[in-house]
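Quick one: structure for this chain?
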Amino acid sequence: MSAAIHLTRRTLFQTGAITRSFSEELQPILNTELLQHRLQGVIPSVVSSLESRGFWTNFEDDNTESVLNTEEIRAMREQSIALRSGGRFEQSWSERIDESTGVSTRFDKEGVFACEPDGQDYYTAPDLLMYMSTVISSLPPLLNDAIHSTRQQNSLNLSNQSFNAKLAVTSPGGSTYPLHVDNTLGITGSPQDDSRKLTCIIYLNPDYQQGDGGELRLLLLNGGCFDLDPRGGRMVIFWSDEIPHEVLPCKPESEDGQFDRYALTIWLPDNDPRNIQTKGSKFESLRVGAFTTESWC
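Got it. Here's what it folds into:
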């Protein structure tokens, strides 16, 4: 788990992580104060939807807009492409866990490549890094306070001092993510303990059109599913330790990079192990039964 830092120019120079000259810096355009304001504005909707459905997204009605403007989304996509061109992306992989033996098996995700942005990427992707820093510092205290005011017990204790992040690109032509829960291990006292509680995705596909594929499919308590297209500026937040989800095939067969599906994911951990895969929680049956049900949708 990476340590969260305030990814400012001053911090990067003081740590000595960057050796490029000051004149080579790519200036970020992200308005972090406006982003903080917009995040604060959606918190009531986020809390209500997380508690009732296990996930939240914008663009569901006329009252929720993107937390980023079009120029910022395009800048973050261009910076993602620059990181990929610079060799920062590697083959993405995941693990299957045998329920009976607990043995995990690694497998590559065909057509999916990813990197973990960090401070050394600031000069190539300043807006990506500033977005990450703002979300990591802002969302945990906002959500902790809001959840605490609505629950009698099991309040959140999300951390703004640690996080995981992944910038992924899915190629067109059928690439998918199989059905999974982000945090399958939970807290057992082993070295593999996973404290991730909240998954926060922002999509960087400003030219996305219906039919391009790559929708995020979330499973619901009523036995159905909910599909979300990865249009630019869509933000999705859901419980990392409980909500099963998958990515549907990216449909266009094309060498044109415009059909590459870019998504930046930030995982926020909870400092209280009792909040991870809590027994008897509303979504426990969904997490446990998702992989034993033949058909959901």
